[in-house]
Amino acid sequence: MSQMLPSEKTSDEILLITAEEAGLRLDKILANRFASIQSRTYFQRLIEEERVLVNGEPVKKRIQPKEGDEVEIEFVLTPELQLIPEAIPLKIIYEDEHLLAIDKPVGMVVHPAVGNWNGTFVNALLYHCQMEAPSGDVRPGIVHRLDKDTTGLLLAAKHPLAQQKLIALFASRKIEKTYWAICAGNPPAGVIDVPIGRSPVNRKLMAVLETGGRRAVSRIKPLRFKDPLSLVEVLLETGRTHQIRVHLKYRNAPVLGDTTYGSEKMNKKFQAERQMLHAKRLRFEHPMTGAMLDLEAPLPEDMQRVMEEYLS
Predict the structure, then answer these.
(1) Are residues 120 and 133 in contact, defined by beta-carbon separation less than 8 angstroms?
(2) CATH topology of domain 176-310
(3) Is 108's pLDDT higher than 90?
(4) I need a surface site. Which of 72, 124, 187, 303 has the fewest CB within 10 A?
């Protein structure tokens, strides 16, 4: 196995040790949990490179964790996991020789990760642009991401310089990102400025924290309300994991259809099978030409249905 570099990171996974696993060696536990992904040798290498933490600390591969211990794994790309160009249809909103913007459908994963090594936007991007993935790079062209079940505008670069410049624009908050969400509730207009971090109760989830976490800022503008649903516009000033979903839950108006942070009762009542969250608009200065781009993606059919039936 070749040397794994930080740029080869694909995703993190957090799991808790069960009673049945307690007392087994950590590398064996991970090989059993992810038998369809990689071998025990692969996980031994991750442990040696301190890409596996137990309760936040690096450990030895022979450690035998206890029930309830939290294990965080940083999966990385290896020579055995290759990126393959795939002829996946893309709904293109904008394209030139430097960048591409698509309207991402429900269910599309942005880049390869655990359980989704193929069928991603990256696979489609490689095929569409006839790009060659740099060795070890699992995210060629990727400059930001959307959750699997979030629809809307997704931006990508066609060459490394454009990718670097777009990433810099996102990092410096020079790309205006506007989302539309259908909520179970009616959040007040205004700014939500509360920190977000890992939930102390369930480390797989994010939550608003009283202490710690990272600053997260969302500007909320209700557009339509018909009890108990609302259509809300959200302008993101920061881009924390699950930020909109966590902030709207904090305002007692979770995104309809959200199975993680939402209301199961409301999701069933309105037959919402996925989170009603859509990346509607991106406004920014083109990193190569300097031209101002103002891109929009139309609402998907399922959100249009809910609006016509319940918010008209």
Answers:
(1) no
(2) Pseudouridine synthase (3.30.2350)
(3) yes
(4) 72
Q: Tell me if 56 sits within 8 A of 198, measured CB to CB.
A: no
Mean pLDDT over the full length of the chain: 90
pLDDT at 293 > cutoff 90 = yes
Q: Provide φ and ψ at 31, rounded to 5°.
A: -65, -35
Task: Sketch the domain layout of the chain as residue ranges.
Answer: 6-76, 92-171, 176-310
Six token digits for residue 55: 């309760």
Q: pTM, whole model, 2 decimals?
A: 0.83
pLDDT confidence bin for 38, thresholds 50/70/90: low
| Positive or negative: CA dihedral 56, 61, 67, 73 | positive
Topology of domain 6-76, per CATH?
A: 3.10.290
Per-residue H/E/C for 227-257: CCEEEEEEEECCCCCCHHHHHHHHCCCCECC
Q: Which residue has the higher pLDDT, 83 or 165?
A: 165
Q: How far apart are CA 244 and CA 278, in angstroms?
A: 11
Does residue 147 carry a catalytic annotation?
Answer: yes
Residue in 147, 149, 258, 302 annotated catalytic: 147
Q: Are 240 and 196 in contact (CB under 8 A)?
A: yes
Helix 26-33 crosses helix 40-48 at what angle (to 10 degrees)?
130
Residue 142 bridge partners (DSSP): 156
Average pLDDT for 159-182: 95
